[in-house]
C-alpha cells in the first residue's frame, strides 16, 4: 500500500480536527451533567466558561444570550419581512437531557428562511422561567426551536409563555414527556411529529430579531434569534411536568440575562398593506 507523504497526513489530520471542532461547537452540548443552573455552584452559569476550554465563550463572549428586549433599545422596522417557514411532519425522538426535555427530528421537518438562507429544524426544548425578558419581565416558560443551515449556522425561534390555558403542543407531548421522566439520555421514539402544530402565529406576527448565542454551553455566538412578541399560555400542570421530569434538583433551567453590549435589537412590525 502506498504511504501518504507526512505533510499530507498532517494536513488531513488538521482538516478533520477542524471539521470536528466546527460540528461540536456549533451545537448545544448533549451531556448536561457537567453544568447546572445553581448560581452559587462551581458548575453554575457564572462558571460555565471555566469548566471546559471550548466553553470559554460563555465567559468571554460579547454577543451572549439571553437578553432583555427593552422598549428604549428596540428599533421598530418593517423591512425584515414575514417569518418564512415551511415545516413538515417528520419522525422525532424525545430525550431527557438532565436539565431540559428535548424533542429531536431525524430530518425532513422543514425549515425557516432568513435573508435567503434556509435553516433546517433540528430540535426543540423548554426553559423555565423564560430566558429572554421583555421590558424587564421574565415570563413562566420559553420554548426554543433550533435550526441549522448547511454551513452549520444556527437560528433559533423563541416562544414565551405565561400561566393560563394549556398549550396544545405540550398536551400532544404529555404522554412521551411522562415516559422519559425517570430516564437520562435515553431516547424515546415519538413517531411522526408535525412542527405546524406549534403555535408560532400567522403571517403578520411581530417578532424581535438580534444576533446572540446558544444559551447553554458551549455558548456559540452568531446565532440568529427570533423571539415572537406574542406571549402565549401554558397550564401550571404542564409547567410542573417539564420541571419535575428532569429531576435536576433545581427550580429553574434559565440562564441569567447577558449584557446587550450595544447590539441592535429590532422589532418587526408589518406595514398596514402587508397581508
Automatic annotation (TrEMBL):
Q: MF terms per GO, please? A: carbonate dehydratase activity; zinc ion binding
Biological processes, Gene Ontology terms: one-carbon metabolic process
Q: Which SMART domains match?
A: Carb_anhydrase
- According to the entry, every stretch annotated as the Alpha-carbonic anhydrase domain falls at 33-269
Keywords from the named record: Glycoprotein, Lyase, Metal-binding, Signal, Zinc
Checking InterPro entries in the record gives: Alpha_CA_prokaryot-like, CA_dom, CA_dom_sf, Carbonic_anhydrase_a-class
Q: Which reaction does it catalyse?
A: hydrogencarbonate + H(+) = CO2 + H2O
SUPFAM superfamilies found in the cross-reference section: Carbonic anhydrase
Q: What is its EC number?
A: 4.2.1.1
Q: What is this protein called?
A: carbonic anhydrase
Q: Which organism is it from?
A: Rhododendron griersonianum
Give the taxonomic lineage as stored in the record. Answer: Eukaryota, Viridiplantae, Streptophyta, Embryophyta, Tracheophyta
Amino acid at each position: 500500500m502506498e504511504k501518504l507523504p507526512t505533510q499530507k497526513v498532517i494536513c488531513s489530520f488538521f482538516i478533520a480536527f477542524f471539521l470536528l471542532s466546527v460540528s461540536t461547537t456549533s451545537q448545544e452540548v448533549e451531556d448536561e451533567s457537567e453544568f447546572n443552573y445553581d448560581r452559587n455552584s462551581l458548575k453554575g452559569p457564572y462558571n460555565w466558561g471555566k469548566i471546559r476550554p471550548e466553553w470559554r465563550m460563555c465567559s468571554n463572549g460579547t454577543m451572549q444570550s439571553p437578553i432583555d428586549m427593552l422598549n428604549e433599545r428596540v428599533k421598530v422596522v418593517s423591512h425584515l419581512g414575514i417569518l418564512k417557514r415551511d415545516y413538515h411532519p417528520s419522525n422525532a425522538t424525545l430525550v431527557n437531557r438532565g436539565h431540559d426535555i428535548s424533542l429531536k427530528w431525524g430530518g425532513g421537518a422543514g425549515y425557516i428562511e432568513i435573508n435567503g438562507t434556509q435553516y433546517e429544524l433540528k430540535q426543540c426544548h423548554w426553559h423555565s422561567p423564560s430566558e429572554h425578558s421583555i421590558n424587564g419581565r421574565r415570563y413562566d416558560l420559553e420554548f426554543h426551536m433550533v435550526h441549522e443551515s448547511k454551513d452549520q449556522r444556527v437560528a433559533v425561534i423563541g416562544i414565551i409563555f405565561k400561566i393560563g390555558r394549556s398549550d396544545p403542543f405540550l398536551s400532544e407531548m404529555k404522554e412521551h414527556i411522562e415516559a422519559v421522566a425517570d430516564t437520562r439520555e435515553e431516547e424515546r421514539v415519538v413517531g411522526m411529529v408535525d412542527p405546524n402544530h406549534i403555535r408560532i402565529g400567522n403571517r403578520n406576527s411581530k417578532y424581535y430579531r438580534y444576533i446572540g448565542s446558544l444559551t447553554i454551553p458551549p455558548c456559540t455566538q452568531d446565532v440568529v434569534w427570533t423571539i415572537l412578541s406574542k406571549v402565549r399560555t401554558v397550564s401550571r400542570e404542564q409547567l410542573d411536568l417539564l420541571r419535575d421530569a428532569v429531576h435536576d434538583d433545581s427550580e429553574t433551567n434559565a440562564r441569567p440575562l447577558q449584557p446587550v453590549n450595544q447590539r441592535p435589537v429590532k422589532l418587526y412590525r408589518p406595514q398596514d398593506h402587508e397581508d
